[in-house]
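User: Can you predict the 3D structure for this chain?
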Amino acid sequence: MKKISKLFSKEIESIIHKKDQYLISSNLNKKEFSIFDRVELKKTGKELRFLVLKITNISLLPFKHISRVVNTLYLLYGTDDNGKGKFSEADIDELNNNEAVWIGRSWLQTENNLQPAMIRCDDNEGLKLFVMNV
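Assistant: Here is the predicted structure, written as structure tokens:
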């Protein structure tokens, strides 16, 4: 099975390898996927670890950057849990219309994906990419 973590930068890889900490939260020196400037790595009870990449202010972020991430995930995982594929005009419309939430894409069915992932955007926390089992 393919793993999204193989696409991460060395900076993110080094954070992932800090296995003894339950919560790591920091700004990134270089934007991940040319978008995300903040990272959180959380560990729960039974070694379940998940990574959250985020950018709070997407107002100046070109859609092509979001499109690139969505399309990369699509190429890696295929259509998402809701049957959505590549980044589309509908996504641009949702993001342009200042919707409270852009549901983005989710590949959370763990039986199909070694590292389930989800990308979404909301008014409170901005654009986030969640990756489980890192």
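Strands lie at 23-32, 36-43, 49-55, 101-107, 117-122, 126-132. The chain has three helices and six strands.
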